[in-house]
Amino acid sequence: MKKIILTALMLALIFSVAWANRITLSADSEGRIVVTDGDSGAIPVPPLGEHNTGEDGEGELLWDDGVMDEYWEDGYNRAVQFIAPVDCHLITGLVYQEDDGILYTPYYFAVYGDADGVPGEELGGVMAVGDAHNGWDEINLISVGIALTEGDVFYGAVIKNGGEFPYLCADTTEPIHGNFYNEPSQMEWVFDETSNLMLRVVVDDDVAGPYTENPNPAPGDSGVHGDVTLSFEIHDENHSVTRDSIIVMVAGQIVTDKCTISQASMDGSFLVTFKPEKEFIPGDVYVFWYAEDELGNGDDDTWYFTVDEFSDDSATEDTSWGVIKEKF
């Protein structure tokens, strides 16, 4: 699986003081991506992903430098703009807290799509509570199920929860990407070019679904006896397979509830076994399954084996398991 190298794909959208004009992208003499906002000239784009290139395909998108210069307690909702560097899933939100920051204060971490340069439709979100430590508050977003396409503009946001609102930290070191804010009672987002809100997101470029291992009978096998017990494993390269997503079809019948589905290993793979109520009659028997991993990546597989002999005299052409002569 290829690694994300976010620093090589650090495309971004930045807005002028009026936040209405899109910038242009170009490369300087050293090959770095720079932006031009029409007023300040070329500004180096801060890295999107200092802690990326892990073999697990995860990358951290960020604008701040990791050092808090100020914090706010103004009660505004705030959002940071990002761009998906590759096709990926959003898996983690990060909000920085320090000292009297957001300790124990509940808030809503939301993700928005883009609406002409400002946060638009909500894509999902989760409630979060600041931990009692200095550092990054990690919000698990896997269950929200947000899939992004390369180039998608989106926003991570901290939204006020009822009457409480967390202190939000920021760095004021150049270059400034800025952030958006609004009063909870208003819908209009305003661009703030004075600082970088310390809010980051982590994406995972794994978009491949589960796959088959150790099928028995093997695909294309012939000479199989009709009383065979079918078995195969469902694996995923980087994430656990979701047990409840598995669907199994044999000889044209959905047999998921008649299968034994057990954990095959600690990596979240499953062993599927199926014994028909009656023997398969001679002919091609097709097997189909569908499953998803915990990120929501789905895939399926189909193969067949050939039954050449059987011993059950009650097995007839209209057996409930039948024989399918063509792929479904």
UniProtKB/TrEMBL annotation:
Q: What keywords appear on the UniProt entry? A: Signal
**Which range is the signal sequence, renumbered to this chain?**
1-20
Q: What is this protein called?
A: SbsA Ig-like domain-containing protein
- List the source organism: Candidatus Coatesbacteria bacterium RBG_13_66_14
